Amino acid sequence: MSIRFDGKVAIVTGAGGGLGRCHALELARRGAKVVVNDLGGAVDGTGGSSAAAESVVAEIKAFGGQAIANGASVADDAGAKHLVEQAMDAFGRLDIIVANAGILRDKSFGKMELKDFEAVMAVHVMGTVKPVKAAWQIMRDQQHGRVVVTTSSTGLYGNFGQTNYGTAKLGLVGFMNSLKLEGAKDNIKVNAICPVAATRMTENLLPPNVLEMIKPEYVTPAVVFLVSDEAPTGVVISAGAGVFSSAQIFESKGINLGHAATADTVAENWAKIADFAEPTHFFSGNDHAGHLMARLGDKPVAG
Ligand code: NAI
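Above: inputs. Below: predicted complex with NAI.
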């Protein structure tokens, strides 16, 4: 199998460095025309210059690929709209958005100012939503679209000092979960990457020998698969150091305590409620409602 993107157009946000740069380079190597977006600011999102995006465009052109640079902030209404317009003006279609741009404003929750919470939400959540919204009708009309959002183990599982980042990153999984349903009939697939990589975001957290093992290049194959024609939809792939796994939310089988359930009977039955011997993953909220109905068929344990 050789995954190719000839004739396809991709936007990769935050692609002036780190993971986004690797995604953009690999998509271009496989034939995609790429819009390299990057605000070019610091890790906390301050400052900005289009130089980072332009240098990745130069790298792509050096091996004969096609790319243009965009220096807008994805969190900006007009900037996100213009990003999509630029892709259409330059290349005439838009097949793929890899929403990768991100910033950090780490602090324990007690010390965090709300403006640092809002800034992180604006870039990760709205900076994903805005370009995808601008591209949505285009993808629907084309009957082809691929969206990858970038989540994080902080969103899936938590990390001290990252309540803002974790909220945003799991929010993107929620965005994916509903959008995959809305895109299904128009061949639009929506997935998430949960990367582990040595970039400027993580370089101070780990020793050099570990950083060498987790180059961003080792994450990119999962992203390329997730935007390919063969892509699944609604999945999270965790990727780092050449290790790939998939994360899902599971629910325990549960028990029917009946309408007479009280806080006390919930407490008494907690071990059974949280028994994951028979876990289920639901593809949609509707499927989850079906699970509840199925439990109603069980004889109530209390009541
Ligand atoms: P990075 O800092 O090298 O890349 C992020 C890029 O986004 C930067 O080039 C930055 O200029 C750009 N950016 C920031 N705000 C922007 C905005 N408003 N508009 C356009 N571009 C903007 O860091 P890295 O590690 O490559 O991060 C890429 C994504 O992966 C982020 O969403 C990050 O949260 C996520 N991630 C990274 C992990 C890692 O281990 N490196 C782990 C989990 C998630």
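The pocket of NAI is lined by residues 13-14, 16-20, 37-41, 43, 45, 52, 73-75, 100-103, 123, 127, 150, 152, 195-197, 199-202 (CB under 6 Å).
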